[in-house]
C-alpha cells in the first residue's frame, strides 16, 4: 500500500489512465498529465503538449490571414470600384432608353 496515494490510485494506475486519456481523450489526458504526473520530465510534458500548441498556433495564424485588415480594405475598395462601374453602365443604359423613341 506504500505505492498508493491519498485517493487510492497507484502511480502505475495513474500513468495508465493518463496515457489512455492522451490517446482517446486528449484534452482530459493533457490536464491529468500536469495534475498527476509530477515525476514525468518537463521535456516529456512539453512534447505531449506540442499538438495543442501547434493547433492553437495554426488557428491564430488562420484567423490573422482570414481577417487581416489590409485584405478587407482591398476587397471593399474593389467592391466600391465595381459598384461605380455598374452604376455608370446603368446610367448610360437608362440614358439610351430615354433617347430612344418607340
How would you characterize the overall build of this protein?
Helices cover 79% and strands 0% of the residues. The protein contains four helices and no strands. The mean pLDDT is 88.
Number of domains: 2
Measured distance between first and last alpha carbons: 105 Å
Strand content: under 5%
Indicate the multimeric state: single chain
Largest sheet: none
Return the string of H and E elements: HHHH
| Radius of gyration of CA atoms, rounded to a whole number | 31 Å
Helix content: over 70%
Mean pLDDT metric: 88
How does the overall form come out from the CA principal axes? rod-shaped
Task: Give a quick summary of the entry.
This protein is mainly alpha-helical and 102 residues long. The protein has 4 helices and no strands.
Tell me the layout of helices and strands.
Blueprint: H1 11-24, H2 26-36, H3 42-66, H4 69-99
Question: What attributes does this structure have?
Answer:
4 helices; 2 domains; 102 residues; mainly alpha; rod-shaped
